[in-house]
Design goal:
Elements (H helix, E strand, L loop, with lengths): L2 H10 L5 E3 L5 E3 L2 H10 L7 H17 L5 E5 L5 E7 L7 E6 L5 E6 L5 E8 L2 E9 L7 E8 L5 E10 L7 H4 L4 E6 L15 H13 L4 E4 L3 E2 L15 E5 L15 H7 L2 H12 L5 H26 L2 H32 L20 H9 L1 H27 L5 E6 L8 H4 L9 E5 L9 E5 L4 H6 L3 H10 L5 E4 L7 E6 L8 E4 L2 H15 L2 E4 L7 H9 L4 E4 L20 E4 L8 H5 L2 H9 L5 H24 L18 H12 L5 E5 H4 L26 H4 L3 H21 L2
Parallel strand pairs: 3-10, 11-12, 11-24, 12-15, 15-18, 18-21, 22-23, 23-24
Antiparallel strand pairs: 1-2, 4-8, 5-6, 5-9, 7-8, 9-10, 13-14, 16-17, 16-19, 19-20
Helix pairs in contact: 5-11, 6-8, 8-9, 9-11, 10-11, 14-15, 20-23
Length: 736
């Protein structure tokens, strides 16, 4: 193996050798792991000659590109760029043409050799030179295109030029020092008197209205990305099929135009349908298979009815639908084709869980057989586009409810860190993804064995070569119909823990991404959509990135149970950064009751998550100590009554302790406070157990009561009032 070539490649491709782990200790990435990651990126690491050839080919391709594929600048930076040409052409006169996003055109003559020579290379015996030049006209924030034209105005090269604002958007109420609170919930968990066994967008409207009436300024959601209608039990919101589109299971079928027509009602009133609907509603866990069958049984005739009436008459609704299809473009057609194809293979009794098991002729969206299928089954493809349209309309209605009730944030969406191996997103753009690797996390507090999430990573080089279009589309899509966006594992903007196929999570390594470019695009989309950004910065996080995120206007994510000093004591929430969202627990953690009674540790023991009895006993001991420190902090700040003992062995979780912890957080300095509905209801079972798949019913557990009953509870109304008062007082204190 040519070690010098390997070392060079590791540096070029941003594969790290050393890092600081979650406990603050130096950690080293094994050399074999780094080699496997290069292989996952497509390098023939077992063939020295082929490896040298590939590296040389990539070097030559850089020189043959006169302009870079894409460049990101901030508004206050000089507009410097590089130009590469054969030496015999560098003294010629050219024209730079800047096509602004606004439609304006700016021309600037240029002679490359008038710039600063910064690099020289040789390609097949020809010398190339690289010059640093300046574009002299200021550019507004946006997506622009720079072209290099010959004297006859023939286009020689093009570059996307992205000019980004300094930081992400912050709502005026927050920028002026306001302190707000909101509720976080997994949308599918919601029970109501009207839903069909899973929380839906109409439930979300009701939740927004009720919560706003009690002083909340946002509702935080799990990712609501598109999953798999043909495979409903693949239900993890963090392993989606497409992050640009929505999960159609959240549709309120009864809110779609035409639902009350006799033909549709005759389906819904059938005895078997009503029995299954009652079963779906009564179930403790979401029965995804049954709910999906019930909804599709009505959605299909609803679509047929829409075709026969609105599409046939070209009504205003039909025109809105066609606009949606046009704006969705290839991405929407790709998803709809994928879902139609999965349903087709399922009906044929063929493997259908994802594109890796499709027949070769159908394994990629752009293949001729796939296009022929889409044409032959155009009505089914249109049906899945119809479902996305309806989902977008219902989500926007929820957003409008938040605006009507003057919630300063309203809907707070969640962007998953990746897509699953069998996803439509990869099927539509396979060159972007390293499908022989998965992302995850090294060993940390949440996962002592490390975590492998089964999500193939984007290749940062391919992302760059595609001019960052996939990430632009991703941010833009997830900032629709909301006021805030949480970026799950925000560290992905800087680096991701890649694990080669077949390796354990501990054998992975960090791969770096163009963080400054990605942050610039994020800031641009945030300002355009007036959406604030919260970065989930838990786990193994370098200190430098936290300050970089803060400088870019991204709000940190502070979880009470992780905010501990070196002596083991818990920091007061009054000392949290103002530019943060604080919370007691998350979807990957036990509820307050589960934490206090160590139910998560007992469950982990039952599921075999701990490699040794010694580790488990250490966790029990640490939990006992942490609970005592929490009690010390709560009593020290007067957040719980003196009638609650200060000795942990005498204190179980109670309503007084539960609410005392929530109010303790409400007095803190974070601009945002998020509270889980599960903790309002004093539930004990977690919604998700990290490190498990089939061992525990993840992403299925419903809330213990309906929305109607929850907001009629006088005790919770009283808690809401106290939270609002505590937040207002915290805001007044910080403004002094």
């Amino acid at each position: 193996m040519n070690q010098s070539v390997i070392d060079r490649l590791l540096e070029i491709r941003g594969i790290e050798s050393d890092y600081i782990d979650a406990w603050g200790n130096p950690a080293h990435i094994d050399a074999a792991s780094k080699i496997k990651l290069l292989a996952a990126m497509g390098y023939p690491v077992d063939d020295d000659s082929a490896l040298v050839d590939k590296l040389e080919q990539e070097r030559q391709q850089v020189w043959w590109r006169a302009l870079d594929p894409v460049q990101v600048n901030r508004v206050d930076e000089p507009l410097l760029f590089t130009l590469r040409l054969p030496i015999e052409l560098v003294n010629d006169r050219y024209l730079l043409r800047l096509n602004c996003e606004s439609g304006n055109v700016i021309d600037q003559p240029v002679v490359p050799s008038d710039g600063e020579l910064i690099n020289v290379g040789e390609v097949q015996d020809d010398e190339f030179q690289e010059y640093l030049l300046c574009f002299n006209s200021p550019l507004p924030p946006g997506y622009h295109q720079l072209s290099l034209l010959a004297e006859d105005e023939q286009t020689l090269a093009m570059m996307r030029w992205i000019v980004a604002p300094a930081a992400c958007y912050t709502p005026p109420a927050i920028a002026d020092g306001g302190k707000v609170w909101g509720l976080s919930v997994q949308l599918y968990c919601l029970r109501s008197e009207n839903n069909w066994g899973v929380g839906d967008f109409s439930d979300l409207c009701q939740l927004l209205e009720k919560a706003a009436g009690q002083g909340a300024h946002f509702i935080g959601l799990n990712p609501i990305h598109a999953l798999y209608p043909a495979n409903p039990d693949a239900c993890s919101p963090y392993s989606p099929s497409s992050r640009r589109w929505l999960n159609i299971i959240y549709l309120d079928v009864t809110a779609i135009e035409g639902f009350h027509e006799p033909g549709i009602q005759s389906i819904c009133q059938q005895k078997l349908f009503q029995q299954q609907l009652s079963q779906a509603r009564a179930s403790e866990y979401v029965d995804y298979q049954l709910v999906t069958e019930l909804k599709l049984a009505v959605l299909e005739p609803l679509f047929a009815q829409f075709q026969a009436s609105d599409l046939a008459s070209n009504s205003a609704l039909a025109k809105g639908f066609y606009r949606f299809i046009e704006e969705g473009g290839e991405s929407l057609k790709m998803l709809a084709t994928y879902e139609a194809l999965q349903a087709h293979f399922k009906a044929q009794g063929l493997p259908y869980w994802g594109w890796p098991v499709f027949p070769t002729a159908y394994s990629e969206f752009h293949k001729p057989k796939v296009q022929a299928f889409a044409k032959q089954h155009a009505e089914q493809v249109l049906f899945y586009q119809f479902l996305q349209w309806q989902a977008a309309r219902q989500l926007e209605k929820a957003h409008q409810v938040a605006e009507k009730h003057a919630m300063c944030i309203g809907l707070y969406r969640d962007l998953a860190v990746g897509v699953s191996e069998g996803s439509a997103e990869i099927w539509g753009n396979q060159s972007l993804y390293a499908t022989n690797a998965s992302i995850g996390a090294p060993p940390d507090v949440l996962g002592p064995l490390g975590q492998n999430w089964g999500l193939p990573p984007m290749d940062p080089q391919q992302l760059y070569l595609q001019a960052y279009q996939p990430i632009i589309d991703l941010f833009a899509a997830n900032m629709r119909s909301c006021g805030a966006l949480r970026i799950d594992h925000v560290m992905a903007l800087l680096r991701l823990w890649w694990v080669a196929r077949g390796d354990s999570a501990k054998q992975g390594g960090y791969v770096y991404y163009p963080v400054d470019d990605l942050l610039g695009i994020l800031a641009l989309e945030s300002q355009r959509n007036k959406v604030m950004v919260i970065g989930e910065d838990l786990g193994t996080v370098p200190d430098a990135i936290r300050s970089k995120l803060a400088d870019n206007g991204i709000y940190s994510y502070r979880v009470f149970f992780f905010e501990q000093a070196q002596d083991g004591g818990f920091y007061s929430p009054a000392h949290y950064p103002v530019q943060s969202m604080s919370t007691l627990t998350t979807h990957d953690m036990p509820t307050l009751t589960g934490y206090w009674h160590c139910l998560d540790l007992e469950l982990g023991q039952k599921l075999g998550l701990y490699p040794s009895e010694a580790l488990l006993q250490g966790l029990f001991h640490a939990r006992h100590d942490n609970k005592q420190r929490i009690l010390d902090s709560l009593h020290g700040h007067g957040s719980i009554a003196s009638s609650i003992s200060g000795q942990v062995d005498e204190v179980g979780m109670s309503n007084a302790l539960n609410q005392g912890m929530q109010l303790h957080m409400a007095k803190g300095s974070s601009a945002l406070l998020s509270l889980q509905l599960e903790d309002w209801l004093e539930m004990d079972a977690p919604v998700n157990v990290p490190g498990t798949s089939d061992e525990y019913p993840n992403w299925r557990r419903k809330l213990s009561t309906t929305l109607e009953a929850l907001f009629a509870d006088p005790a919770l109304k009283s808690l809401s009032q106290k939270l609002t008062e505590a937040r207002q007082q915290a805001g007044q204190h910080s403004s002094r």
